Structure formats: C-alpha cells, structure tokens
Amino acid sequence: MPVANDAPGVDIERADGDAEAGDLPINELFQSLQGEGRLAGVPSVFVRTSGCNLRCWFCDSYHTSWEPTHDWFGVDDVLAAIEEYDADHVVLTGGEPLIHDSSEALLERLADRGYHTTVETNGTVVPDAPIDLASVSPKLASSTPTAERDPDGDGEWADRHEERRLDVSTLAELVERYDTQLKFVVTGREDMAEIEGLIERVRDAASARVRDDDVLLMPEGQTREQLEATREMVADLALEYGYRYTPRLHVDLWNDAPGT
Ligand SMILES: C[S@@+](CC[C@H](N)C(=O)[O-])C[C@H]1O[C@@H](n2cnc3c(N)ncnc32)[C@H](O)[C@@H]1O
Ligand SMILES: Nc1nc2[nH]cc(C(=O)O)c2c(=O)[nH]1
Ligand code: SF4
Ligand SMILES: [Mg+2]
C-alpha cells in the first residue's frame, strides 16, 4: 500500500523518495477510530512508519514489514499532516515505529502540542520519549514465520524472528516507564500457556504492577471472515483466564480496506 495521499488536506508533497537526516519512512497517515485496545472507538490520527525488526507470518501491515513501501518525510511535515485533522489522539504505529530514532522526536513534538499519544509496538525496543499509552504487543511462538507459514518464501526469517521477538527485561522496562497495555494476538488455546508464563516473568521482573485488565487478548485475523473464525474462542479464553478481550473494531467495520 503506498503512502495514503488522498485524504483531504494532507500535505505530503515532498514525496521525492530521498531520505534526509531526521526523516521518517511513512507508509500511510489517516484518520480512523482506534480499533484495538483500551481506547477502541476513539477518533485518532494514525501515523504508520515502514520497516520492522520482526516478520510475523500474519502481519496485517505486509507493506511495512515483508515488503516495505514508504516515502520519507521530515518530522515537521508529519506534524503538519496530523494537524490537518481535528483530533486529540495520535497513534504511532508501523511496522515497528520504535526502530526509528525520529519517532522519538515526533513523540516529543506531539507531547508539546498536547496530543494524547498511543504507540503500537512489538515491545522489543525501549524509547526515550513521552508516550501516554504504550500499546505493547509481544509476539508469541505462534507468530513465527516457519517455512509452512512464511507468506514470502521458505522460512528465511524464522530464526531472526525467534531470536528477537521476546525480551522480558525490555518488556519490564516498558511497563515501568509507561502506562502500558499488553495486547496479545491469539491464534488458539495453545497460546495461553506462553501468555501466562510471560506475564508471570514480566510481573517478577518489573517494579510496576501489571493488572489482569492490562492484559488484552485480541483475535488473530486480517479480515471479517478470519475474525469470525477466531473471536468467540478468544472471548471465551478472556472470560476463562480473567484477562480483557479487545475487538478489532476497524476490521468489523471496514474489513481490510486501506486507510482504516
Ligand atoms: C501491524 S502492528 C504494528 C505495531 C507493532 N509492530 C506491533 O506488532 O505491535 C499493529 C497491531 O496489529 C496487530 N496485528 C498484526 N497482524 C495481525 C493479525 N493478523 N491479527 C490480529 N492482530 C494483528 C499487532 O499485534 C499489533 O498489535
Ligand atoms: N482503526 C485502526 N486501529 C488500529 N489500532 C492499531 C492499529 C495498527 O495497525 O497499529 C490500527 C489500525 O490499523 N486501524
Ligand atoms: S511486529 Fe508488528 S509490524 Fe512487525 S511483522 Fe509483526 S505485526 Fe507486523
Ligand atoms: Mg492495523
């Protein structure tokens, strides 16, 4: 998916493909309702950076991970595009937004201007920047792109993904530093043992408290049809384990349409 430049008033004229120091690779920028997590339903501007240090086989943002596409924009240009919208909430996502140093500069500027910021992150990087809600989605073994599941080849990324996907001390630091929700993509009941074990390890490692309702179970699925097959099972698991369920509101509403 190319940069979404058809939204009214969004100025992304300087799309010349060349990076300058401090630029961010932007895949798309749009307004929607936050579809996931504690703030589901809140009108928000989404800034999607391109590039990721992981390769989940199910990644619903294929054009930021497996096949990244983007144009480069300065932080000022990104801010100007955000300010075209009448929104108080900004969601910085990707790809993995925290692999880019300039994400920190953008978050500083957004905080200065009084925006509420959510960062959607895989929890492998601790940033040095203000964030109102760290929406951390640690990646489970069921996300690994094994040869059978690799959408793009025959498992070349499996080892790198496996090595990088979880680091308890990084997760503990995020929990200590930020108001955090831990949002797990659930593919089946088999994921629960890993989730339970990981929560226990993060609780042991972090001085800050992780409440059961800071832990969210989200059904895997990029389309309405796929979610139909997983959401009830995941809702039942949330009830059984006492964690929170999060819908994928945007998928329920708009399926897999771009810019939603
Ligand atoms: C595309 S990721 C970008 C942010 C970051 N890289 C991460 O994974 O948290 C945004 C959110 O979508 C979730 N996600 C990606 N593919 C999904 C799928 N097929 N089903 C459910 N959630 C998915 C991720 O777990 C994450 O919470
Ligand atoms: N509406 C909507 N809500 C979202 N919440 C997290 C998203 C993401 O891709 O990070 C996302 C997204 O892509 N769309
Ligand atoms: S970590 Fe996030 S962006 Fe990266 S591949 Fe997984 S879901 Fe996609
Ligand atoms: Mg998304």
From TrEMBL:
Q: Name one GO molecular function term.
A: magnesium ion binding
Which InterPro entries does the protein's record reference? 7-CO-7-deazaguanine_synth-like, Aldolase_TIM, rSAM, rSAM_sf
Q: Which UniProt keywords apply?
A: 4Fe-4S, Iron, Iron-sulfur, Lyase, Magnesium, Metal-binding, S-adenosyl-L-methionine
Composition bias of kind Basic and acidic residues appears in 147-157
Residue span(s) of domain Radical SAM core: 39-256
User: Which residues of the sequence carry a binding annotation for Mg(2+)?
Assistant: S61
Q: Which cofactor does it need?
A: [4Fe-4S] cluster; S-adenosyl-L-methionine; Mg(2+)
Q: Where does substrate bind?
A: L33, Q34, G35, R48, T93
Decide whether keyword Transport is in the record: no
Q: Where is this region: Disordered?
A: 136-157
- Residues annotated as binding S-adenosyl-L-methionine: F58, C59, D60, G95, S137, P138, K139
Q: Which reaction does it catalyse?
A: 6-carboxy-5,6,7,8-tetrahydropterin + H(+) = 7-carboxy-7-carbaguanine + NH4(+)
Residues that bind [4Fe-4S] cluster: C52, C56, C59
Q: Which pathway does it take part in?
A: Purine metabolism; 7-cyano-7-deazaguanine biosynthesis
Q: How is the cofactor bound?
A: Binds 1 [4Fe-4S] cluster. The cluster is coordinated with 3 cysteines and an exchangeable S-adenosyl-L-methionine. Binds 1 S-adenosyl-L-methionine per subunit.
One Pfam family linked to the record: Radical_SAM
What EC number(s) does its UniProt record assign? 4.3.99.3
Phosphoprotein as UniProt keyword: no
Q: What does this protein do?
A: Catalyzes the complex heterocyclic radical-mediated conversion of 6-carboxy-5,6,7,8-tetrahydropterin (CPH4) to 7-carboxy-7-deazaguanine (CDG), a step common to the biosynthetic pathways of all 7-deazapurine-containing compounds.
Q: Which HAMAP family match?
A: QueE
Summary of subunit composition and partner proteins: Homodimer.
Task: Give the family from UniProt.
Answer: Belongs to the radical SAM superfamily. 7-carboxy-7-deazaguanine synthase family.
What is the protein name given in its UniProt record? 7-carboxy-7-deazaguanine synthase
Q: Which organism is it from?
A: Haloarcula mannanilytica
Please state the gene responsible for encoding this protein: queE
